[in-house]
Amino acid sequence: MGAEPPARAEPLPPVPARPLSHAQPPAPSRTRGRWGERPAPAPPRGPGRSLALAWAPDDPYTTMEDYEQSIQDMVRQLKNSSEPGDTKCQVNLRLWRSNRRSLSPWAYSINHDATRIPADIPEARCLCTGCINPFTMQEDRTMASIPIYSRLPVRRLLCQGSGDTGQKRSTKKKCPKKYQTVMETIAVGCTCIF
């Protein structure tokens, strides 16, 4: 009785792709050019979409209002936090939040500005001058903790007619509430450098 060779599995036929109900029509296929040539970038999907936002779905969470709401949720969590306002340069491995487990730990404070929306934004503040040595778990000042900055979109209150015309504005006349979206630099965390 000889051993029979294993049966060969036949390749499965390709499964046709089914578009999702909310998916964009498929982008035109990019064919490979000659060796060394790069294919042309895929065109943006949807009307008025730039290449930078071509990946973003058309779901509601990409709206400015939802973005502002998520920031306000973070501010609310900070205000309601039961953790002590610890300002010590130390790592706490029992906490799940990355800002306290980092080798360059940071705490959050609330950056308040009444002339912008959102008025309150959580901002990181480094707790160490140096960095935590992972072997001794003590601060090592041969390294430095520095903030990581990010530019966040905010809406700034603008006053029309507030230009210098040489006339004093009446204290009774109020500024009409008109906002402009601008990018603001905010510290979002800390990192360690040599």
Automatic annotation (TrEMBL):
<keyword id="KW-0202">Cytokine</keyword>
<comment type="similarity">
    <text>Belongs to the IL-17 family.</text>
</comment>
<dbReference type="InterPro" id="IPR020440">
    <property type="entry name" value="IL-17_chr"/>
</dbReference>
<dbReference type="GO" id="GO:0006954">
    <property type="term" value="P:inflammatory response"/>
</dbReference>
<dbReference type="InterPro" id="IPR029034">
    <property type="entry name" value="Cystine-knot_cytokine"/>
</dbReference>
<dbReference type="InterPro" id="IPR010345">
    <property type="entry name" value="IL-17_fam"/>
</dbReference>
<protein>
    <submittedName>
        <fullName>Interleukin 17B</fullName>
    </submittedName>
</protein>
<keyword id="KW-0732">Signal</keyword>
<feature type="region of interest" description="Disordered">
    <location>
        <begin position="1"/>
        <end position="51"/>
    </location>
</feature>
<dbReference type="GO" id="GO:0005615">
    <property type="term" value="C:extracellular space"/>
</dbReference>
<dbReference type="Pfam" id="PF06083">
    <property type="entry name" value="IL17"/>
</dbReference>
<feature type="compositionally biased region" description="Low complexity">
    <location>
        <begin position="1"/>
        <end position="10"/>
    </location>
</feature>
<dbReference type="GO" id="GO:0005125">
    <property type="term" value="F:cytokine activity"/>
</dbReference>
<keyword id="KW-0964">Secreted</keyword>
